[in-house]
Amino acid sequence: MHELDSRTLGPLNCFVQKVTEAGDFYFEIRQSSAGFCPVDEKSVTRVKVKANKADRAQMRTAGTQHTVPVSYKDGVFQAQEMPKDIVQGDAVLFHAAMRDAPDFAVTGQMGRTPFSSTELRDQAVFTHAFGLPGRYRWADANGADVGGVIVVENEPACGKAGAQRALERLSEGVLVHIVGNKVKPKELRITTGQTVFFAVEDCDGITITDVSLLGDARREKSAPC
Amino acid sequence: MPDIQVAVDEAQAALLVSKAQALLGTQSRSGSGSLGPFTANWNASAGFSGGTVDLRAPDIIRIANMNLNFTVGIGFSLDLGDFLPEFCIPRICIPIPFLPDLCTPRICINWPTISIGPVNHSGTVNFTADFRLLASQDGSDWKIEIQIMNVPSLSLDAISALIVTALIGAISLALLAVPFIGPFLALAAAAIGAVIGVAAVTGLLGPILSLFVNGLSFEIYRQPQVQQVLSNMGANDPAVSIKIDTLAAQVLISDEDELVIDADIAPA
Fold first, then answer.
1. Residue extents of the structural domains in chain A
2. Distance from the B168 Cα atom to the nearest Cα atom in chain A, whole angstroms
3. Complex ipTM, two decimals?
4. Pairing relation of β-strands B258-267 and B99-104?
5. Would you list the domain boundaries of chain B?
6. Which residue out of B80, B106, B107 would a mutagenesis test of the A interface target, given it has the greatest number of A Cβ atoms within 10 Å?
7. Comparing A190 with A40, which gets the higher pLDDT?
8. Is A199 in Cβ contact with B93 (below 8 Å)?
9. Min distance A158 CA to chain B CA atoms (Å)
10. What is the pTM of this model?
């Protein structure tokens, strides 16, 4: 649950996909271990996306956020509160509605463009709340030359004021912007409990994975920091 | 008048006791018990040594300041949800290059149940107790034991205080590995420490150590019932054996206190 790995979405994660194409938007939510399997047409949820007449530049910084809580019952994941009116340029955020549910993955297609929480491509966001201090070196499990470091440090929580300050810090999110193989910032310092938003553009399906979870070959190949 | 009478003074009786303590060795037990509001699993081993022997008529050996040398390991599970308020990461909104503000939902997590220990502690408790002399047959042997007459009260507060310190240390270490505990670390440590005090540890440790003391007995003397007193000297001079028919032990007080063993014998 607390591991940094965008291939699995747990209670501390969100996955966001900007809907860049009009037409058919469908997705399947399943166990994270099945994330790379083809979509099962019988299990998908479909929504029609209305075309947006605004130009690309306007669409880039606009859009409504639709939040989809994901529940789990009797071995099946289900999207609760499915949005009905999605317009091209909107964003869909998936998150676990239940604290004790298994990790999951979201895979689907918008128009002719596939998307997946297990392979972040374009205008996708993966969020992770860091609960323990440490130095987290991350890389792409699929082998792309992209990676970075998140340094998580405890903020002293001395007394009531200290504890209050530490709790306030939890609402301060931090951005890591990844475009192709460019990561900004490459090294980031945050306080224990803060959430990092990994915003991905123009990538060929990458993951944000703690290198300690990767095999030896991948660990050596990960971007030096 | 017994056929054979053996007497030892207090110094020699002390040697018998010392050998018997060594013979008993270290015993081990395990179980579970209450540690404040928790159920703790424990394992313990104990042995005995030292003490001053005082012979008392008619059949009592008082051992003063005997050492109960023990090692105890205590472990338990702790549901942090019982001590900490519900924790939620609040809704977070930040601007994204290709979106307006992106907002995550409020995320609430369950505090885990953590395992503590086993925390090991070795120590010595001093106690004084009276033991009664008991002679009995054990298979083909006669034996004399001294058996504790009542379980003494053990003074454990000082030892319990040390164990409390060790437990709090183990709890603090375990808490550090709990995600998001940071702002609540001091609160958790204080709340848990408040329920694991000297009284709670003594409440667990007392019954554990009493198990080793309850019914405690030391074997101070053992002899075969049948003994050869003369070896075979030839066809016309066979070996001669005797049989101990009865054996008894008592304490006689005179100008010198003595532990006396009386035996009646007959040809075997």
1. 1-118, 120-225
2. 19
3. 0.89
4. unpaired
5. 4-86+115-225
6. B107
7. A190
8. no
9. 8
10. 0.79
